Amino acid sequence: MGNLSESAEKTGTAVGAFNINNLEVLQAVVAAAEKLNLSAIIQTTPKAIEYCGLSEIYAMVMAAINQAKVPLVLHLDHGNSFEIVEACLKIGYRSVMFDGSKLPFGENVSETKKVVELAKKFDAFVEGEIGVIAKGEEGERSNRQFTDPETAAEFVQQTGVDSLAISIGNTHGAPVGEKIDIELLKKINSAVEIPLVMHGSSGLSDDDLLAAIENGIRKINIDTRLKQAFRFGISEEIADKNLDIRDVLSDAREDVEVVVEKYLQIFNQERTTNISNN
Ligand code: G3H
Ligand code: ZN
Q: Is the CB of residue 208 below 6 angstroms from any atom belonging to ligand 1?
């Protein structure tokens, strides 16, 4: 993830980070990135790892990455324990997130610091999180805590993380009409020197995504939109008993590819505009 975010910083773009839980969605992300000749991050959450098995998901993603015609990076998303981070690093992940955002500040610092120290031994990149990103489901939104710029700077300084996920109104689960606070983002971007990450981006408008990139977001996470596209793609055809299941899955894969392409074009507008102007 390190090189990708440095290069995003230089070009004023953001790296697209897409969550995968199965072969077809992985293939869709790779195909879209190759089609646009853009790099991307392939993310697996602890739940995806639990669903597939760590060695299975690692082997599957690395096989795709090793054959891809563009730079792709495997990343642990929302690592929720030291043990899962350690298991991922040991098997070969070189980019991990430790999400201690719901812990009190001091504990988030000490747990994240332990992860950073461990990751150094593997020459791996660590994303931390400060502030609490809410979920779209009703009732949970009240847990949201916007990121305070000074606390963010202190967190980065004390932990030594390589990138920082922040809460500025971005919400997991793609709730309709969510808005981000660009003024707050500007303040965080001035206070923090490392690349900023925006989770919960599926529900945001294209204009908000572009404004976020313009003001320092260098990695954007997308999960819900891919799950929706895959689910709708399958449900459109699954009732047809004459169809081979592989045809159903490959049609859903194409639907996901279209969504990934759309996001990669927005996140890399600077680059794609240059490509089309040449
Ligand atoms: O870590 C994953 C992302 O933050 C996904 O968020 O629900 O908006 O797709 P999303
Ligand atoms: Zn997230």
A: no
Beta strands in the chain (DSSP E): 15-19, 40-44, 72-79, 95-98, 125-130, 163-166, 196-198, 217-222
Catalytic center residues: 77
pLDDT digits (tens, 9 = 90+) for 1-14: 677 888 898 899 99
Ligand 1 atom with least separation from CA of 19: 2
Residue from 202, 260, 266 whose mutation best tests the ligand 1 pocket (most atoms within 8 A of CB): 202
For ligand 1, whether the C-beta of 219 sits within 6 Å is no
Full set of structural domains in the chain with CATH: 2-277 (3.20.20.70)
Separation of alpha carbons 232 and 67, rounded Å: 29
Tell whether ligand 1 has an atom less than 6 A from the beta carbon of residue 166.
no
- Yes or no: say if 260 and 33 are a contact pair by the CB < 8 Å rule: yes
What are the pLDDT digits (tens) for 109-141? 999 999 999 999 999 999 999 999 988 755 456
Task: Give yes or no for a contact between 184 and 176, defined as CB atoms under 8 angstroms apart.
Answer: no
